[in-house]
Every structure is written in structure tokens, then in C-alpha cells.
Amino acid sequence: MQRENTPIFFSIIAFFCFNYRMFLVSGWELGNDAFDLIVGLGLFKIRRFLDGGLRLRTACDFKLASELTVTVPEGFAVPSTGTLLELVKQKINAVGDMFASPPVTKLTSEVVVKSGDKSEE
Q1: Which helix (H) or strand (E) holds 119?
Q2: Is the pTM of this model over 0.70?
Q3: In the chain, what are the helix, strand and coil shares in percent, each to the nearest 5?
């Protein structure tokens, strides 16, 4: 019997636990801009994942059926991807002095190349 390529539709409910341990992050005393950047990046990653192509496996395409719902804190709505991207850019500029300067650290090291099999040692 030949198998048909008939799409199968079913419902999957995804739960995201967004727990940055707010008290721990607050305890770092990085300031409001850095705190907003950390939270904004987390929300951006979730929103970008849901808004982007949700092809997690071959021939297994997902799409968001309804708007993202937040249960705690009550009444909170996750901003759009564009809004979160602007927030992240703004906060990166605001805390720019907290990043390393220059942003890339180049390391040099002497490399020793050993020849032969480990069993010979």
C-alpha cells in the first residue's frame, strides 16, 4: 500500500519558563539599563523564535495559532519583535561602558604539535 502525503493537523501547546531569578539579577547591582537589557534579550529570543520559521524538523512546520499569552505577571503582554529589538539596541548603547573595550579579545598562544600515536607515549 502506498502512503499518501496528507498533512496531519494537531495542536501543540508550548510553555516557556522565563525565569531570570530577578532577585539574583537585581543583586548584581548592574543598574536599571543592564537589568532591562537582560530581560529584553530573553523576551526577544522567545518572540523571535515564535515569529520566525518554526520548522523544528523536516516536514514539520509549526505556526503560532494565537497571540502569546502570559500568565504571570497577570496583565503583562510581550512586546512585538520590532519593539524588543529597539529596546535591546537602546539598552546596549546605554550600558556600552560596561562592555569590554575593544569588544574582541585576541589571544595568542604557542602551539606544540605532537606527532605519533598516544599509545607510543
Answers
A1: none
A2: no
A3: 40, 5, 55
